[in-house]
Design goal:
Elements (H helix, E strand, L loop, with lengths): L1 E9 L5 H10 L12 E9 L4 E9 L10 H4 L4 E7 L9 H12 L4 E6 L9 H7 L5 E2 L8 H14 L3
Parallel strand pairs: 1-3, 1-4, 4-5, 5-6
Antiparallel strand pairs: 2-3
Length: 163
Amino acid sequence: MVAKKIVIVGSFGVGKTSLIRRFVEEEFSEEYKVTIGVHILKKTVELKDETVNLIIWDTEGTDEVENIRKAYLLGTHGFVYVCDLTRPKTYEHIEEHKIYLRKNFGNIPIICVGNKSDLLPKGSIAEKKEELFFLDILVSAKEGNNVARLFEKMAKILIYKGT
């Protein structure tokens, strides 16, 4: 078994904690809880020929990724950058933040996620994907849509691309 550190970053209220809870505990709560500092959870992902223990760091929300304590980010194997599909402010600076992360922490994988797809009007997801081409995957922590797929995708990138 191999262990990989994944750090979840993004603005306040985008659903980082809800996303992780949905994946690790298969639960969702409407109750909003602010993450202070960092919260660490683990879950094992079974790939076809490897078992990966994902150590998932849930960081406090910030509009500026530079404000996250560098100690939380050191040793990261992959980042999941979460934004809220209903709040454009949460993804306006995504490219700049990716540049910062790569410059300071190496050329490690960054998966950009649009959360709260359940709040989009019915039938508009394909259109939204096209509009927000810079996002790698749209998810719903509330309904569970694509959540496991997101973390499995990260595990595959980390294992099969040698990171």
